[in-house]
Amino acid sequence: MLTLTCPYCGVSGEETEFHAGGEAHLKRFISGSTDAEFDEYMFLRENPKGVHFERWRHVYGCGKWFHAARDTNTLEVFGTYSAQVSEPPKEIKDKISAKRPGWSWRNFK
Amino acid sequence: MSKAVSALAGAKASGLVAIEERGLQGMITLRGDFASAAFKKAVKAVLGVDVPGQRAVAVQGEKAVAWMSPDELLVMVPHGEADAIVDALSEALKAEHHLAVNVSDARAVFRLSGMDALVREVIAKVAPVDMAGFGPGQIRRTRISQVAGAFWQPEAGVLDLVCFRSVAQYVFDLLKVSAMDGSEVGHLG
Lengths: 109, 189
Hints:
- The complex is a heterodimer.
- By secondary structure, chain A is α+β, with helices and mostly antiparallel strands.
- Chain A has one domain: 2-Layer Sandwich (Folate-binding fold).
- Helix content of chain A is about 15%, strand content about 30%.
- Chain A has helices at about 35-45, 90-100; strands spanning about 5, 10-15, 20-25, 50-55, 65-70, 75-80.
- Chain B is of the alpha+beta class.
- Chain B contains 4 helices and 11 strands.
- The termini of chain B are far apart.
- The mean pLDDT of chain B is about 95.
- The interface between A and B is medium-sized, with 13 and 13 residues.
């Protein structure tokens, strides 16, 4: 089971208090995009064994959305951060690099 | 106008701790920008307390203000005064982007009282919260078994819990089972 810390209310809660919201940092391609771009945005998702970035919502608590970086293999949570960013902040990346040298996820590393 | 009644009309039960539905309680949802000076001033002027810090509850006589999220407060007032206080808040916050709504009749409130360790234990059985680190002055919004709820301790040995009115019977029955005689765990000293 995951233990996540909500960056908005500071609660360290277990997984059942939150709700997973799918892959993080997706860029939307809708009208005006090519079929290939739309296809990738709509249907193609990462499925890594290891470092992964997700959106979560503190659904039974403050109700806010946030981002979480975790390892899908060990369930280790590297950190959680604000929802209002389009890529992981540096301190989260550094934390992951310290524990999983050479990691990469989509175009982040 | 029809007469207001609470969800379970003051139902009571006892076991490890006493459980009581508290009857009518005025509650107001107040949302706005906590960083704004005008918001802070309005809360202080109308409710007599400062905007509480993260997950804190501020009590002032019959009124209490609880931190629900970074932009939401739960204001507790006597039931009959709720509408007047909503009006006062709306007036004081006229120039601010905000929301003040009387939600009194959408909620149910329960009070658990008894030995402090047992009060916290009854909650620890039904909510994923470390009750060893919980005490007066804090509020925690969380999951009460299968439904959303929030609780705080006005003082040691007393715990107030709010949930939606539609699940009041469920929560009452759940607390009753959690507080059944002979079911103490004794983990919380």
